[in-house]
Amino acid sequence: MSAPRFALGAVLLLAGAPAAAESGRTAAVFLQRTLGAQAAGMGNAFTAVRGRPDSLQFNPAAAATLEHKTVTMTYLKGFGGTTHGFLGYAHPSKIGAFSASILYFNAGMIDLNLSDGTRGQVTAEEDFAGTLGYARGFGDLVYLGGTYRYVRLELAETARTSTSQGDIGLLVAPPQLRGLSLGAAYQYWGPDIKFEEAGDPPPKTLRCGAAFRFPALEAERLDPSVDLDAFDMTLTADWVKPLYEKASPRVGMEIGLTPALLHRLAIRLGYVFERPAESLTMGMGFRQGRFGLDYAFGSSPRLDHLHQLTVVAEF
Predict the structure, then answer these.
(1) Rounded CA separation 98/70 (Å)
(2) How far apart are CA 89 and CA 259, in angstroms?
(3) Cys-Cys crosslink for 234: which of 137, 254, 269, 314, Cβ 3.0 to 4.6 Å?
(4) pLDDT one digit per residue (tens) for the chain, 315 residues
(5) Nearest partner of 147 among 192, 181, 182, 97, judged by Cα
(6) φ/ψ of residue 184, rounded to 5
(7) Which residue from 169, 150, 164 is spatially nearest to 49, judged by alpha carbons?
(8) According to the CATH classification, is domain 3-13+34-112+120-192+202-314 in 2.40.160.60?
(9) Which of 146, 160, 5, 156 is nearest to 64 (CA)?
């Protein structure tokens, strides 16, 4: 058995494992996992959200709405012992916003017991993705953006391949409805991912969404006894259609509080429909000056729960 065939055969053993339960008939499905605790806590409904670094994974046009240079770092403990690591940077400028990110995925270990007597443990899958993006706003109405992505995949520490992909995105903020934004993106466009002669397409995904941020209210006007300066609320809704899978509506909500000793405290809820590995999500976040910490919890009716943590720094 050739090395690539051996590796592919080993990975087929994962077909019944939790990590593979999310995939359809596409390759590199690790790219679809939300890697920002703010967005994850809001049901992954983030295509139309402005001014937040988590938006970059959902819509490349959102980079043009950031006001500060931003670094984000995320760690995610996923299903079946899988782990994700993410590091991203966004750089707004007068000529547009530039962004770059690195994503790492490890599917955990599997036991080998082959007919030729080979036994041991190997990493089931270990993947890497690097992106470069650019976005630009046209006034305060329309924002356009695109991303180039290089992906490298390794199966069972034996078979390796690489590919390139692209994303495009649009974000619109109608001036007649202040606080409303609409977004759309087409992600992971690229050639089939091949280890030998046969291949599978990347997880090409169409996203459409809407977000509405209500104006911040002064808490003293509602209740003078409350020790809050202000609070705000954002509602989001997305429609997501991955290749070969059912469309998945998602909804999210964030309530932001401004207490006396913190810059901002946020509480988040969301729900993912039509996804067997996802359902209710929740999270919270803290901001102090230009530094923040976000946590998200994702429940699953069939698999283990998700826990992820994101650190954000603005400069």
Answers:
(1) 11
(2) 29
(3) 254
(4) 444 344 444 333 333 333 333 444 788 889 988 889 999 999 999 999 999 989 889 999 999 999 999 999 999 877 667 889 999 999 999 999 999 999 999 988 887 776 676 677 888 899 999 999 999 999 889 999 999 999 999 988 888 999 999 999 999 999 888 899 999 999 999 999 998 777 899 999 999 999 999 887 655 555 565 556 667 899 999 999 999 999 999 999 999 887 766 678 899 999 999 887 788 999 999 998 889 999 999 876 655 678 889 999 999
(5) 97
(6) -150, 145
(7) 169
(8) yes
(9) 146
For residue 207, the tally of other CB atoms under 10 A from its CB is 25
CA distance 249 to 237: 7
Task: For the chain, state the CA radius of gyration.
Answer: 21
What region does 52 belong to: left with phi over 0, alpha with psi -120 to 50, or beta? beta
Give how far Cα 292 sits from Cα of 49, 58, 212, Å: 18, 20, 22
Question: Token digits for 81?
Answer: 């012992």
Of 284, 285, 287, 283, the C-alpha closest to 261 is 287
Q: Which two tokens stand for residue 267?
A: 């509480």
Distant-in-sequence, close-in-space partners of 251: CB < 8 Å, separation ≥ 6:
43, 45, 235, 236, 237, 238, 270, 271
First to last CA, the chain: 53
256 within 8 A of 271, measured Cβ to Cβ: no
Specify whether the CB–CB gap between 238 and 249 falls below 8 A.
yes
How far is it, in rounded angstroms, from Cα 209 to Cα 181? 8
The CA distance from 112 to 210, in Å, is: 47
Look at residues 307, 205, 198 and name the one whose alpha carbon lies nearest to residue 247.
205
> In the block, which residue shows the tokens 């390796």?
160
Is residue 222 helix, strand or coil?
A: helix
